[in-house]
Amino acid sequence: MPGVPTHVIAVANQKGGVGKTTTAVNLAACVAAAGRRVLLVDLDPQANATSGVGLEKTEGASAYRVLLGEGSLLDKVQPTAYERLALIPSEVDLCGVDVELARADNHLGRLAHALRPVLQSQRFDVVLIDCPPSLGVLTLNAFAAASGVLVPLQCEYYALEGISMLSRVMAQLHDNGVNPRLQLLGVVMTMYDGRTRLAQQVVGEVREHFGDRVFETMIPRTTRLAEAPSFGKPIIHYDKYNPGSAAYELLAQEFLGRLDRLEPLPST
């Protein structure tokens, strides 16, 4: 939709194995299928989002050099096999960013600066950033560039452990002026198994803690959802009738509803 400012959303949780990349990939695919133009930015050196949409890790294809001030992020955009879904891939060179940027000027604002031409191009309605499972320089750059953060949280004990640290970091970036627009877009419960009392208890605790920030849609634990990345396909293109497909399609609708109430980032 030309003329509509782009929303930039970071998908983050410093704890690994919570369904973060699964959520980034499948939400991006479902939002694209719903008619929005989506750019998925793989900022995790493991590059699982890159392989999850069927692209290979390629030397020099990541945002690494751009974050160091060389070249344009628009040149890194690659099409995927899926209509309206594009990708900025990752590769192992992103591992060096934490060390390189830690001693650079404006080290937290590099991604925000690099994204400006992307926003000005008006080629995308939504930019989703898949962050590394840490609160290092890459994740902090994503927070500094985003208007909202989406936090996947697994339905297991210790689900709330660490999220308070993530919330404190977001509050610091908000309050100290690094990104005064930053807010928690929402928490999505992943790996949900309604047959277990544990999952129900965890969801109850999280809803009590975060209230309406928790998405109504919960992502079930399914074998096909776990298989899809090995075929380089989002679940809606791997098994459209799987419960995981239905869940991510519903999540996409909820997500878009929240985006419509979120102030987008200016393009200048």
Secondary-structure blueprint:
Blueprint: E1 7-11, H1 20-33, E2 38-42, H2 48-52, H3 64-67, E3 78-79, E4 85-88, H4 97-102, H5 110-121, E5 126-130, H6 137-145, E6 148-154, H7 163-175, E7 183-190, H8 197-210, H9 223-227, H10 235-238, H11 243-259
Parallel strand pairs: 1-5, 1-6, 2-4, 2-5, 6-7
Antiparallel strand pairs: 3-4
Task: Summarize the structure in words.
With 268 residues, this protein is α/β, with parallel strands linked by helices. The protein has a single domain (7-258), classed as P-loop containing nucleotide triphosphate hydrolases (Rossmann fold, 3-Layer(aba) Sandwich), CATH 3.40.50. The protein is built from eleven helices and seven strands. Strands 3-4-2-5-1-6-7 form a seven-stranded mixed beta sheet, sandwiched between helices. Strand 3 (78-79) and strand 4 (85-88) form a beta hairpin. The longest helix has 17 residues, at 243-259. The radius of gyration is 17 Å and the shape is globular. The model has no long low-confidence stretch (mean pLDDT 92).
